[in-house]
Amino acid sequence: MNLDPATDRHPFLDGLPKRMLIGDRWVAAASGKTFETRNPATGEVLASVPEGDAEDVDRAVAAARAAFEGPWRRLKPDERQALMFRFADLVDAHWDELAWLDTLDMGAPIRHTRGSRRHLVGLMRWFAGQATAIYGQTADTSMNGSMFAATLKEPVGVVGSIIPWNGPLWAMVFKTAPVLATGCTLVLKPAEDAPLTPLRFAELALEAGIPPGVINIVTGFGHGAGAAIAAHPGIDKVSFTGSVATGQAIVRASAGNLKRLSLELGGKSPHILFDDADLERAAPAAAMGVFANAGQICTAGTRVFVQRGIYDRVVEAMAKVGDGLRVGAGTDPDSDIGPLVSPRQLDRVLGYVGSAHEDGARLVTGGTRFTDAARAAGNFVSPTVFADVSDPMRIAREEIFGPVASVMPFDTLDEVVQRANDSPFGLGAGVWTRDVGRAHAIARRLQSGSVWVNCYNQMDPSMPFGGVKMSGYGRESGPQQLDEYLHVKGLWIQH
Ligand code: NAD
């Protein structure tokens, strides 16, 4: 990838204003409207993209339906699989370019966007492998031997996906792989703050030979294209990743045709450190569990519960990690943490810092915006540690989506389980202890879609990921995700 170091220009940007993909066409919005996407490190406009709305979603759904009932459906699983492997190879070959686009559009350090290659290309290949492994079962019914009873697994049809900005490349892989493996088709709306990677990713799908209409991208806003996808009667299922409030709006909007839903929503994940933990590993993991991607990760372990005997040491160690991180433009290979995605997000995070001060939490480090010449135009905030936070404070209850840790002491296992579960969310949870019995016991009691013991934020294509409670329902990754895109049909043949 030849990024011009003088201007940070990506070759893909030179083809812009980029249009959106409907069927085999790169088109403008029917309304002719466009919107700008900016580099969050500099505030510069990167590109203008179409502002799609309901009319464009209609066109995309028609293209997706035609592909579903036409060329895509006629392909045998092994033929679909071959295309998926080719697509994965192409994404692998263009990874650097895709990583740069993510970095420019949403700010994550290039080291990190590059670094997710093994996992994400691996996930594409894992799902390609599954394309020929989808089958039902035969049943021994209680009727006489003249009955043949079996289940068939069939694709749900046209899927609508609505994704957030905090990891566009991640979201594209997670939303396309199961669609392709099961033989569904897709209408996807990228986040308005980071629409560029999804467009390039879809371009590569066409190049790999995925038939036109299988993947359609409608760029636009939530109230326009997003709401139209949620309500569209021609969409059979919506897979949404984003905030709880939007998830609730989608549930309401989907009622018209009772479409299937999977919702990957927010979190306020507990990260629990017992006093027998290996602190050399646990304290940095607790810090990076909050600071990675500038805190813009749904599983950020933002409620750090520390057993009282090691509390002061952990607070100090976390602050040290935060102070040592290099906060800068994602395009700088030395940056550990990039900017927040938008000025709106910056205001939101600083608002939470203000609320913590008002509520009486103790600021240990951070809590400010960087205003030096190199960073003043971007949305840079320092890694922040608040100690002596109490459970009812807003920073301990609400999702901040910024690099702000709330550190709280606890005494007993029962107490920490009760406090960790006292949250509307249930996405991830971390536990550090050397006591195997305690690890098993607490893992079962935590109300959470994933529990990581002596590690944090681990993911693998073979493992499911998702939430309980208001963190949503449905699973991504793992065999469980395939079932989200399949109907099971009962077949009875009397002979
Ligand atoms: P958001 O809910 O504001 O937006 C997400 C997407 O929904 C965007 O594409 C937006 O345009 C669209 N949208 C907004 N209003 C809509 C509506 N009424 N109808 C349909 N679509 C609409 O979320 P965000 O700020 O982009 O992302 C941050 C949130 O995403 C956080 O809460 C985070 O925890 C969550 N998230 C969850 C996961 C997960 O896997 N659980 C992963 C990443 C992010």
Automatic annotation (TrEMBL):
GO terms for molecular function: oxidoreductase activity, acting on the aldehyde or oxo group of donors, NAD or NADP as acceptor. The keyword Nucleotidyltransferase does not apply. InterPro entries: Ald_DH/histidinol_DH (IPR016161), Ald_DH_C (IPR016163), Ald_DH_CS_CYS (IPR016160), Ald_DH_CS_GLU (IPR029510), Ald_DH_N (IPR016162), Aldehyde_DH_dom (IPR015590). Pfam families: Aldedh (PF00171). Keywords: Oxidoreductase. The keyword Oxidoreductase applies. It comes from the Bacteria. Belongs to the aldehyde dehydrogenase family. This is Betaine-aldehyde dehydrogenase. The lineage of its organism: Bacteria, Pseudomonadati, Pseudomonadota, Betaproteobacteria, Burkholderiales.
